[in-house]
C-alpha cells in the first residue's frame, strides 16, 4: 500500500474518532435471501465464478523448486499445480487420460519427477506430457500427444498462484493476465511483496453455510463488539474502518486501539500496519488480511448451497518467522481461529434461518456498504452469464478470465 494511501486511510479513521462518525454509504442496501440457498442460482455461481474466474489455488512458497507440486480440489475441479525442470509453473486437471483416476494422490510434495496414475500406471512428466503407458502394445498406435494432462490457465504473482479451473483445448494459451484482472490492486500487492513469504499454516474449515455468507463475515466490523468481546474486539476501535471499491475487488482498513497515538506525530512516520489491519477482497472468493507481521488468507469455496469450505492460511516473511518463536505464531493463528469459530457458529444459524420465511432480504446498513458492493458484483457477474448465452456480453466482455 502506497504511503500516500496509508496516510489518507489513517487520517480518515482519525477523523471518524474525532467526530464519532463512520464511513457510510449513501443509503441502505439489500440482497435476496434466496441467493444464499437457491440451487439454480448456486449452480450459476459455480459454473461462472469457480470455473471461469481466476482462483487463488496455491502460494509461491509451496512451489519454489522443480518437482514441487500442490493438489487443490476445493473448487470442485481436481487441480494439480507443479513447477517443471525448466522453472515454469503449470496447472493441469489431476485426471489420468486413460480412465479418469487422479495422477497424484498427495495434497502436496517435492522432488517429483513424474506423476503416475495409481490405477493402471500411466505416467506424465512435469509438463503434463504422457510419457509412459503400461502394456502399451495393447493400445495400438496411440497418439500420445493427444493424451497429455488437460492444461489450465495459470498466473503467479505477488506470492499467490491463480488458476482458472476449466480445461483448455490443445491450441489454447495457458497464460493469464492477472495484472489486468487485479487492476488497481497491483500497486498495493506489489508493495506488500509476498513473493518470498513462507506458508506457516493452512487449514480447511467446513461450515454449514453458503460460500457467500462466509465472505460476508469479513466485510464489516459492526458485529465485533457483540460477537467477539473476548477475542478480536479488544484489539480494535468500535467499528472504525474505511472502505474503497477497486473494480470488482475491494480494499479496507480496520483501526486498532493504538490509532489515536498518531495524533501529533509527523505523517511521514505513519505506517498503517502499526495501527490497523488492511483487508483486500479478491473477487470472487478470497480475502487477504495484512497485520503487522503476517498475512492471513481466507478463501471460501462452495460445496452445496448450504455448505462451504473455508481455507485459512497464514503467510509470514522469513525474517519475521526467524525472529519470533513458534508459540507467538500459534497464538496469532489461534486468535483468528477462535474468532472464526464465533463467526461461523452464528453463520450456520443464519443459514438455517434463511428458509424460515422471516426475511425476504438481507439488509445492509450504511456502514455495511462493503457487503452491498460485494453482492452487487456477484449478481452482476452471474447475470452476465445469461447475457453471454444469448450472444450478448456484459461489462467484462467475452473473455472474462483472459
TrEMBL record:
One of its GO terms (molecular function) is iron ion binding. CDD domains: RHO_alpha_C_3 (cd08887), Rieske_RO_Alpha_N (cd03469). The keyword RNA-binding does not apply. Residues 55-163 form the Rieske domain. SUPFAM superfamilies: Bet v1-like, ISP domain. This is (2Fe-2S) ferredoxin. It comes from the Bacteria. Its cofactor is Fe cation. Keywords: 2Fe-2S, Iron, Iron-sulfur, Metal-binding, Oxidoreductase.
Amino acid at each position: 500500500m502506497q504511503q500516500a494511501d496509508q496516510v489518507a486511510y489513517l487520517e480518515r479513521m482519525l477523523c471518524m474518532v474525532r467526530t464519532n462518525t463512520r464511513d457510510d454509504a449513501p443509503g441502505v442496501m439489500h440482497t435476496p435471501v434466496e441467493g444464499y440457498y437457491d440451487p439454480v442460482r448456486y449452480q450459476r455461481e459455480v459454473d461462472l465464478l469457480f470455473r471461469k474466474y481466476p482462483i487463488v489455488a496455491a502460494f509461491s512458497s509451496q512451489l519454489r523448486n522443480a518437482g514441487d507440486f500442490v493438489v487443490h480440489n476445493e473448487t470442485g475441479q481436481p487441480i494439480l499445480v507443479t513447477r517443471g525442470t525448466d522453472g515454469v509453473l503449470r496447472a493441469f486437471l489431476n485426471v489420468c487420460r486413460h480412465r479418469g483416476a487422479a495422477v497424484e494422490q498427495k495434497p502436496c510434495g517435492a522432488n517429483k519427477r513424474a506423476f503416475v496414475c495409481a490405477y493402471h500406471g500411466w505416467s506424465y512428466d512435469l509438463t503434463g506430457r504422457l510419457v509412459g503407458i503400461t502394456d502399451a502394445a495393447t493400445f495400438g498406435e496411440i497418439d500420445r500427444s493427444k493424451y497429455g494432462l488437460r492444461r489450465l490457465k495459470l498466473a503467479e504473482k505477488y506470492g499467490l498462484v491463480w488458476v482458472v479451473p476449466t480445461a483448455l483445448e490443445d491450441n489454447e494459451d495457458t497464460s493469464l493476465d492477472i495484472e489486468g484482472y487485479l487492476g488497481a490492486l497491483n500497486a498495493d500487492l506489489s508493495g506488500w511483496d509476498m513473493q518470498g513469504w513462507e506458508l506457516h499454516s493452512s487449514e480447511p474449515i467446513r461450515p454449514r453455510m453458503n460460500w457467500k455468507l462466509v465472505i460476508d463475515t469479513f466485510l464489516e466490523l459492526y458485529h465485533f463488539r457483540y460477537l467477539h468481546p473476548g477475542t478480536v474486539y479488544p484489539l480494535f476501535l468500535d467499528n472504525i474502518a474505511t472502505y474503497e471499491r477497486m473494480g470488482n475487488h475491494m480494499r479496507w482498513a480496520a483501526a486498532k486501539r493504538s490509532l489515536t497515538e498518531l495524533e501529533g506525530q509527523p505523517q511521514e512516520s505513519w505506517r498503517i500496519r502499526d495501527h490497523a489491519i488492511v483487508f483486500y477482497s479478491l473477487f470472487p472468493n478470497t480475502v487477504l488480511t495484512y497485520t503487522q507481521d503476517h498475512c492471513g488468507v481466507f478463501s471460501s469455496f462452495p460445496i452445496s448451497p448450504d455448505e462451504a469450505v473455508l481455507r485459512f492460511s497464514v503467510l509470514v516473511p522469513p525474517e519475521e518467522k526467524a525472529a519470533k518463536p513458534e508459540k507467538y505464531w500459534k497464538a496469532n493463528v489461534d486468535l483468528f481461529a477462535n474468532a472464526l469459530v464465533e463467526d461461523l457458529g452464528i453463520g450456520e444459524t443464519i443459514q438455517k434461518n434463511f428458509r424460515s420465511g422471516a426475511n425476504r432480504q438481507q439488509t445492509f446498513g450504511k456502514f455495511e456498504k462493503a457487503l452491498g458492493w460485494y453482492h452487487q458484483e456477484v449478481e452482476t457477474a452471474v447475470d452476465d452469464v445469461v447475457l453471454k448465452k444469448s450472444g450478448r456480453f456484459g461489462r467484462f466482455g467475452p473473455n472474462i478470465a483472459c
